[in-house]
Amino acid sequence: MSNISRYDPFGIEGVPELFHGLFRPLRSAGGAEAQPGGIRIDVTEDDATYTVKAELPGVEKNDIDVKIEGNLVSIAAKVERDTELKDGERVLRRERYTGSVSRAFTLASDIDEASAGAQYKDGVLTLTLPKRAASARKRLEIS
């Protein structure tokens, strides 16, 4: 009986381990690996609105800052964890992220900042971003 194996173009024998990290971003789903402590987002759109859902677990609502400038959206947050130790207690391992996280991205259309809305529930920030109506182009008269 023959053995069937999956071909991995980046698992070439003879390539030093040093170079394997160069190909890691190409191997992950979606073309990019999630960064520790980073903000993961989903963006959807319809004819009039963009909807952005951003994962911000463990963040207080008051520690989130959203800014909109034209078609640029930036989200920043402070992630704080309780670091106070009880008497006689000591830390054996600390893996949960503490610090600041941010994410900025552009959308295809400008956003109507006055009508934009935000809601934070169960660690998910939901932004409703209405598209700004396209302004009529003005034709300049050449004299």
UniProtKB/TrEMBL annotation:
Pfam families noted in UniProt: HSP20
SUPFAM superfamilies in the cross-refs: HSP20-like chaperones (SSF49764)
InterPro entries: A-crystallin/Hsp20_dom (IPR002068), HSP20-like_chaperone (IPR008978), Small_HSP (IPR031107)
Domain SHSP: 32-143
Family membership: Belongs to the small heat shock protein (HSP20) family.
Protein name according to UniProt: Hsp20/alpha crystallin family protein
Taxonomic path: Bacteria, Pseudomonadati, Pseudomonadota, Betaproteobacteria, Burkholderiales
